[in-house]
Amino acid sequence: MSATRQPPQEQAHQPGRESEMTPRPDYEPRFPGVGKLKGKVALISGGDSGIGRAVAVAMAREGAAVALVYLEEHNDARETECLVGREGADCLRIAGDIGDEDFCRTAVGMVVDRFGRLDILVNNAAEQHEVSDLTELESAQLQRTFRTNVFGYFYLTKAALAHLPKGGSIVNTTSITAFQGHDTLLDYSATRGAIVAFTRSMARSLTGRGIRVNAVAPGPIWTPLIPASFDADHVAEHGASTPMNRPGQPNEVAPCYVFLASDDASYISGQILHPNGGRIVGS
């Protein structure tokens, strides 16, 4: 099987803009909704584009109202808001930095004020930066990556716990790099490993409250973070080394989040799903 490659491209700013990608990622759910999340409210960080956009549209199709938290990609966020609305669901856009605990408290408060409840938290926003050697990793970058990818998850979860009911669900985004490592994404891989441990620890902590906590560990997926992280040649080969010889699309990952957030997964907590193109990794 020949590898499927993307056109070489780069973006200068993280976390990247979906509107500038060629081709655009596939976000559209593949099947009709059946009301799995009817009446629920979901808060999705990094919900403007990539996996977050696909999750937002998929959850909307299943009946959820959706709040999108994103950094500053306003055009992408407005487009996602329209896509959610096209599914007949209400949508709230909230711009800000999840590395700021005050912002996370404010964002959760805005969701509850708007919808009157919060049932599902999807911790998905992240950033990554290449370094070829640990000696090149500057302290400011290390702290920034952990502030977004780890502290932000803690902050949003801490704020959400005041509102999540029995039967609520938290779904975290980790990565295949947490299990395989990555030679040039040193700090990013470390944060993804931290989120695996966070997921398992929070699952144990919240079992008595009837709140399930799980995670999704995508492999190479075609999202704005890719051209915003790597050079054009690397982007062109993204996903080509997987057993399926291609990168995944966001709409191939989003069903994992819908499943884990729904009552279909009522007996699942502390687990990691691996949509990664066929790589066999430890769980």
Automatic annotation (TrEMBL):
Residues 15-29 have a biased composition (Basic and acidic residues). Residues 40-225 form the Ketoreductase domain. Pfam families: adh_short_C2 (PF13561). NCBIfam families: PRK06701.1. Residues 1-32 are annotated as: Disordered. It comes from Microbaculum marinum. This is SDR family oxidoreductase. One of its GO terms (molecular function) is oxidoreductase activity, acting on CH-OH group of donors. Residues 1-12 have a biased composition (Polar residues). CDD domains: SDR_c1. It comes from the Bacteria. Keywords: Oxidoreductase. Belongs to the short-chain dehydrogenases/reductases (SDR) family.
